[in-house]
Design goal:
Blueprint: H1 3-9, H2 14-26, H3 35-41, H4 46-55, H5 61-77, H6 94-115, H7 118-130, E1 134-137, H8 141-154, E2 160-163, H9 169-174, E3 181-185, H10 192-203, E4 208-212, E5 225-228, H11 242-262, H12 264-278
Parallel strand pairs: 1-2, 1-3, 3-4, 4-5
Helix pairs in contact: 6-11, 8-11
């Protein structure tokens, strides 16, 4: 759930609600306002502001303010003329449809890139580097997107166990090796099956990497590190998961590439020697493809 939505729906006292209404009305204008100035403008106190932050699970007012401004910046930047839920209409020509889908996927990647931080990527790489294997948990389309990631990682000697059977994934999470890690992919962050998986992994103190939408959700609270997705799609009313699939695939490619780069020369040589030995029957008349 987005922070703005939580501000609107969370039960606050009358004095706290005055501060919330001020935030929702002023939005980016609070950027340079001090805690004392906001308290004065809302006829409240600094302690009221801190209490609001604690109710929303933030360490203090500064953390809440920063998260609110970051969310506003993302939402303003991600406005597009392409609707992620219905990117084309029944009257669009075939080439128009092709252009709109391409634009949506490009924007989804750019959007997701803007949400990546160096520190988060560093944590992801460190967790995977220390792990004997990756236990990947997802549902529906996300499982299909994850297949290529698992194959890519296997080609550089990294084991990715994709868990897909509904009744078995709880056993797989419970029996996960202590030196492994978990990778949970969930757009909403509220899939009950994946929530249970995250709980089981947490109980075993297995580090969890979560790929999910912006805003707070239950799964993200279980994670050791979170990679945020472009967040444009509704849960149900959409033609397809164009944006989400593209964003997940991009993040998985980024993870693979960062792991590859850790032992770049060794992995390059491994890929080339393996391909030459195993795929020796591949050929092409094209100068671009021929080696």
């Amino acid at each position: 759930m987005l922070l703005q939505e939580r501000l609107e729906t969370c039960p606050f006292t009358n004095s706290e609600r005055q501060v919330i209404e001020y935030l929702l009305e002023q939005q980016r204008n609070i950027q340079n306002k001090t805690t004392a100035e906001i308290a004065e403008a809302t006829f409240s106190s600094k302690s009221t502001l801190v209490r609001i932050a604690k109710k929303l699970n933030y360490s203090g007012w500064t953390a809440l303010k920063t998260a609110y401004l970051d969310e506003l910046a993302y939402l303003e930047k991600s406005i597009s003329c392409i609707d992620a839920n219905s990117p084309f209409t029944k009257r669009d020509s075939l080439i128009t449809i092709a252009n709109k889908v391409a634009r949506l996927e490009i924007e989804s990647i750019e959007d997701t890139l803007s949400l990546i931080t160096h520190d988060d990527l560093r944590k992801v790489v460190d967790i995977i580097a220390k792990s004997s294997s990756i236990n990947l948990f997802a549902a529906s389309n996300n499982l299909l997107v994850a297949q290529e990631f698992a194959q890519q990682m296997s080609r550089i000697g990294k084991t990715v166990q994709i868990n897909s059977l509904h009744d078995e994934i709880f056993f797989n999470a419970f029996l996960a090796k202590p030196d492994s890690c978990g990778l949970v992919i969930t757009y909403s962050g509220e899939n009950q099956t994946l929530l249970r998986v995250a709980e089981l992994l947490s109980e075993k103190e297995i580090p969890i990497i979560t790929i999910t939408s912006i805003g707070e959700n239950t799964t993200s609270r279980q994670a050791d590190v979170i990679l945020r997705l472009c967040t444009r799609e509704k849960l149900f009313s959409k033609i397809s998961t164009y944006s989400t699939d593209t964003a997940i695939n991009y993040l998985l490619n980024v993870i693979y590439s960062c792991i590859f780069a850790q032992d770049y020369d060794e992995n390059i040589q491994l890929k080339i020697s393996a391909s030459k030995r195993i795929e020796s029957n591949r050929s092409s008349d094209s100068n671009i493809l021929r080696e």
